[in-house]
Amino acid sequence: MFKRILIVDDNLDLADNLAELLADEGHSITTAASGEDALGISTGSTFDLVLSDVWMPGISGVELVLRLRPRVPEPVFFLMTACPSETLRREATSAGVAAIFDKPLDLAALLLRVARVPALL
Questions:
Q1: What pTM, to 2 d.p., does this model score?
Q2: Does residue 121 belong to any structural domain of this protein?
Q3: 88 in a domain, yes or no?
Q4: Count of the separate structural domains present in the chain
């Protein structure tokens, strides 16, 4: 089912590749190069899923979730990280993150999880 997805990553090549992959699956994709950009984009927008890197200049992915949740409470949040840790997993879970994907990404696993996200009508 079609979903509106916001991809946030300062690695523009990765963001573009993910955007292309998910668009090919029939989803509507918006990208942001930073947490700050994502906050601006989220004003007046609705997303079913926010897929964000954890470590970016400015605000982190976990901080982005905490700041987006009051603005746009509907989306599911997924994080991506090249530096997984139990501390990060606890913080992310506490912030309401539904899944954390280690980089390099397992694209098949990501696509399966995206397919399970309910689309808002």
A1: 0.94
A2: no
A3: yes
A4: 1
DSSP H/E element including 99: strand 99-102
Structure tokens at 78: 């997924």
- 111 and 23 Cβ atoms separated by less than 8 Å: no
Q: At what angle do helices 107-116 and 12-24 cross, to 10 degrees?
A: 60
Task: For residue 57, give the nearest of 106, 2, 9 by alpha carbon.
Answer: 9
Query: For residues 90 and 93, what is the distance between their CA atoms, to the nearest angstrom?
Result: 5
Q: What is the pLDDT of residue 70?
A: 85
Span 61-84, pLDDT tens digits: 999 999 998 887 778 999 999 999
Confidence of residue 39 (pLDDT cuts 50, 70, 90): very high
Of 43, 41, 107, the C-alpha closest to 70 is 43
In angstroms, the CA 12 to CA 67 distance is 22
Q: Supply 92's token pair.
A: 């992310």
